[in-house]
Amino acid sequence: VDPPRTNFIRQIIDADLAAGKHDHIATRFPPEPNGYLHIGHAKSIALNFGLALDYHGTCNLRFDDTNPLKEDVEFVDSIQADVRWLGFDWGERRFFASDYFEQLYQFAIELIEQNLAYVCDLSAEDTRTYRGTLTEPGRDSPYRERSVAENLDLFARMRSGEFADGSRTLRARIDMRSPNINLRDPVLYRLKHGVIHHQTGSAWCLYPTYDYTHPLSDALEGITHSLCTLEFEDHRPLYDWCIDHVSVPSKPRQIEFSRLNLEYTVMSKRRLTELVSEQLVNGWDDPRMPTLAGLRRRGYTPAAIREFCERVGVTKSDNLVEMALLESAIRDDLDASAPRRMAVLRPLKVVLTNYLEEIPPAPPFTKGGEEKPPVDKSPQPPLLKGEEEEKPPFEKGGLGGFDQTKQLEGFSVTLPNHPKDASMGSRELPFGAELWIDHNDFAEQPPKDFKRLIPGGEVRLRGAYVIRCDEVIKDAAGAVTELRASVDFATLGKNPEGRKVKGVIHWVAAATAIPAEIRLYDRLFRVPTPGAGGNDYRADLNPNSLQVLTDCMVEPALADVRSGERFQFEREGYFVADPDTAPARPVFNLTVGLRDIWGK
Ligand code: ATP
Ligand code: MG
Ligand code: MG
């Protein structure tokens, strides 16, 4: 593995360690359990857990669960599964911000005792009006000068459930005229009656805000470097204010980095939640979703996602990352690791009319083996059923080899599982008198430079013979339903005599093919930044993002495929077996095509 690239955060950590500020570093990944993790979170996970690994420090998984209404254990579970799947381990270091509710409450009392927090009776709307705007200073709340004793009393009664939701908040007493709106007496606590929190049940009706909870949770856990996205940059003064004014055991440092934004998708949890709940996609793990669950089902590997995060890097400036960058990471991974297979997505029957009739004479061989037979580079088809079954002393194997001992219907070619990696072995691909080829590999009126099959033309069947199309069969509507072709038996593993055949197409033998369903995916949205034109982002959904092909034919080696197994289907792309795969009925998802199509 290459050493990680340096970035400004590593430079800060290096300097802190050199200055003796810490003897080990501690980071955390703090998701709110209100949705599934997406590729943006992967960047944060890879960064936080990656730093901990490289610096021999620790990384906590902390659920930032201060908004019980939108949260659920379903999300706690999925987040844990996804972090593990990505290849990271928090060990015993799993926490919930709600673990600290009692401690946070005591910290709030400390603030009140220092006259740094007060109970405010303004409504939510009035609180907003009093806050002012970017150009207008805020105004002091009429409740700002309450005595410490009154604030302590009211705060205790807020906890005990005496006051209705929205009637009171606890606010920090900072500066209503600060140019930074976050410092204009921010709300620290609000009332939420009747919600059952997934961790604390109904123990609390008083909930701390994110801006108050986050710094203090970091401090309680001894986090040294608290990494968050750029939009929290102007929350940092409040982050520091909180840890500076209560008796926390450590002082973490907040550092902001750029969010990951990806073209042709949305990443806000609100929008992802809408896509799921409005059934605009088939759930959180829909292969078109930018969620980790979706990418997993799409066939992405954890290594490819980590590599993508590494290639994206960690910077201080927000940018929109091209889909091609994500796709090249998985393509590179699968090019090296995925076994090759034949799959015909849009099957067109080809009948080889001379295959059964013209059986050329068997190659000469001698019994007893004193004499080696002449090396015949153009092996012929096998014997008909019931014919001579004596074994010729031929060596079998290699591309284009065939087994003379097999019956005609059992004839197969041996193909390597990977053209560049012999350790992946080979498999037998049965041949036959009836084949499936892809409709796209035949054209009656071929466009210029069409190197596949045309009427009267020749093409090579990958790993097998050259065939010539002799006849085109059509239905009443004029659609091509079948081709009649003839085999040139002299072309197995060698070039035809006296002419060049340029095209090579994939195929499967009809008698042994396995029917399969193949799901093709395109970008979920039609535009790089959905909703950027001021329209609802839903209007930018790509109506053709999913195409389901139910009549595909794949080679028999794919009969017992298990969910999650990845392949390259020759000339088509990389595919993964979907969890919907049933016995004898594989279902595959397109992970990514063979080439970058985003540039065109
Ligand atoms: P949203 O704003 O969509 O609700 P969030 O940032 O609030 O997302 P969290 O669950 O709070 O979601 O995120 C957990 C961690 O992941 C945070 O530290 C956050 O900064 C980081 N994170 C979230 N989205 C991205 C992203 N697109 N790029 C990098 N880091 C991200
Ligand atoms: Mg958040
Ligand atoms: Mg959020």
Number of strands: 27
Largest sheet: 7 strands, mixed
Radius of gyration: 33 Å
Q: Which consecutive residue ranges, at least 5 long each, have pLDDT under 50?
A: 361-407
- Global mean pLDDT: 91
Q: Which structural class do the helices and strands define?
A: alpha/beta
Provide the CATH superfamily of the largest domain: HUPs
Sequence of strands across the biggest β-sheet: 12-25-26-27-23-24-13
Distance between the termini: 33 Å
Helix content: 10-25%
Number of domains: 3
- Top-tier CATH class of the largest domain: Alpha Beta
Helix tally?
12
Can you tell me the CATH architecture of the largest domain?
3-Layer(aba) Sandwich
**Strand fraction:** 15-25%
Shape, please? elongated
Small molecules (ligands, ions, cofactors) in the structure: adenosine-5'-triphosphate, magnesium ion
Brief characterization of the structure:
The protein is of the alpha/beta class.
Task: Describe the secondary-structure layout.
Blueprint lengths: L7 H11 L7 E4 L9 H16 L3 E6 L9 H14 L7 E3 L4 H13 L3 E4 L3 H8 L16 H12 L9 E4 L14 E5 L14 E3 L1 H11 L4 E5 L6 H10 L7 E5 L2 E3 L6 H9 L14 H7 L3 H11 L6 E3 L1 H15 L2 E2 L1 E2 L2 E6 L59 E5 L9 E5 L3 E5 L19 E4 L4 E9 L5 E9 L15 E2 L2 E2 L4 E8 L24 E9 L11 E4 L3 E5 L9 E6 L8
Parallel strand pairs: 1-2, 2-3, 8-9, 10-11, 12-25, 14-20, 18-21, 23-27
Antiparallel strand pairs: 4-5, 5-6, 6-7, 13-24, 14-17, 15-16, 17-22, 18-19, 19-20, 23-24, 25-26, 26-27
Bound molecules: adenosine-5'-triphosphate and magnesium ion (2 copies).
GO biological process, one term: glutamyl-tRNA aminoacylation
Subcellular location: Cytoplasm
Family: Belongs to the class-I aminoacyl-tRNA synthetase family.
